[in-house]
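User: Could you go from structure to sequence for me? I need the amino acid at each position, not a summary. Structure tokens:
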């Protein structure tokens, strides 16, 4: 009876999916994000492009031989090449997308050029702001309002209802990655993405020349959104007994990134500069650990750091700098980070919930190298840990 009922649900959902799949994209090129028919969802993170004036922008930290021929167009070529190789389902531009120290009209043109590879490939994309994007006469709000009108973007200025419950910053929003077409979990978000605006520079006396931090209003918004996602995940039909995994993207790393050095056991990648995080710890990371949902926090900002390390069950990962206009390290290839979530197969043969989350990096070298593949999280590991914990508790009693 249970199997018959499950198959009936699958059939009903398949018919609904068929009717919806006729028009998966709206007039602005926006679409509902979902896992593909292979049960996978791939995210390409591009950080610190520092896009300027295209071919007129000179590169930083390249060899003398490369310098005469290097410009922003090298950044464009790298992103295009990576899109062709990886075929991502979503591109996240995680801040310092443009070099903002120019007139507003030029900043708009810079953004058009910076995001062009995603638009030309017709791939859904989102953007958050870094500390340099607004260094013109365009404010952070104006920048985000410009971005959200661009083709194929799912970016938001701020979450729905922020006019009633004010939230600091511009570019705080949540993306829900739903189950594949035809699966029983078609209407459930199986992976939750949270974009946060970490601000630019502190505007308070006594904190001059310091980076801004995620404010309490943003932490509260995350907590509310996370609890709502958990409630939806546990609802009928096909209620789940846990929470869907989540990922957070913000430009400036949280202070907890400072704890790690390389080489070090369990830390994959390199640290080649100090972590430039805010002077104030607003408690975001503590809240992420408390909620237990988020499996990874992904940042940029420090261009020549690209490590991943785990703290209290949460992975803290740098993307590494992708842009040639921003600083880098001569001989150390520009790079991007890829994250892929894979669903499990149920006993009925349909796609279930997220089984594991994996990451790796792509380099802009001769071979377009793929390096440092690692599992960030897996359901099996979590279940094993929970089982051992319960066994230990039973033994103690």
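Assistant: Here is the amino acid at each position, in order:
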């Amino acid at each position: 009876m249970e199997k018959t009922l499950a198959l009936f649900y699958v059939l009903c959902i398949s018919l609904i999916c068929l009717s919806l799949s006729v028009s998966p994209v709206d007039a602005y090129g926006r679409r509902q994000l979902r896992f593909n028919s292979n049960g996978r969802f791939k995210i390409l993170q591009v950080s610190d492009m520092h896009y300027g004036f295209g071919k007129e922008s000179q590169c930083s930290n390249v060899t003398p031989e490369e310098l005469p021929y290097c410009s922003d167009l090298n950044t464009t070529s790298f992103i295009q090449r990576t899109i062709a190789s990886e075929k991502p389902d979503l591109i996240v531009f995680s801040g310092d997308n443009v070099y903002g120290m120019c007139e507003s009209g030029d900043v708009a043109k810079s953004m058009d050029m910076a995001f062009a590879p995603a638009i030309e490939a017709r791939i859904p994309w989102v953007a958050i702001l870094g500390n340099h994007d607004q260094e013109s006469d365009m404010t952070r709000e104006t920048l985000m309002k410009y971005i959200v009108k661009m083709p194929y973007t799912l970016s938001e200025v701020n979450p729905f209802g922020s006019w009633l419950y004010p939230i600091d910053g511009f570019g705080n929003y949540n993306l829900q990655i739903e189950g594949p077409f035809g699966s029983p979990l078609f209407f459930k978000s199986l992976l939750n993405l949270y974009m946060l605006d970490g601000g630019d520079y502190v505007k308070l006396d006594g904190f001059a020349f310091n980076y801004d931090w995620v404010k309490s209003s943003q932490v509260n918004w995350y907590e509310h959104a996370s609890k709502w996602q958990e409630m939806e995940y546990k609802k009928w039909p096909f209620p789940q007994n846990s929470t869907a995994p989540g990922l957070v993207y913000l430009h400036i790393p949280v202070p907890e990134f400072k704890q790690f050095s390389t080489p070090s056991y369990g830390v994959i990648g390199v640290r080649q500069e100090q972590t430039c995080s805010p002077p104030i710890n607003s408690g975001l990371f503590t809240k992420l650990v408390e909620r237990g949902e988020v499996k990874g926090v992904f940042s940029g900002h420090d261009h020549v750091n690209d490590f991943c390390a785990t703290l209290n069950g949460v992975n803290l990962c740098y993307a590494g700098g992708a842009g040639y206009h921003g600083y880098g390290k001569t001989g150390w290839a520009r790079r991007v980070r890829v994250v892929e979530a894979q669903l499990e197969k149920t006993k009925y043969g349909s796609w279930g919930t997220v089984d594991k989350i994996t990451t790796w990096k792509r380099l802009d070298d001769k071979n377009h190298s793929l390096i440092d593949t690692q599992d960030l999280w897996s359901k099996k590991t979590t279940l094993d840990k929970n089982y051992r914990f319960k066994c230990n508790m039973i033994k103690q009693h």
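One structural detail worth keeping in mind: Residues 1-11, 13-23, 386-391, 393-397 have pLDDT under 50 and may be disordered.
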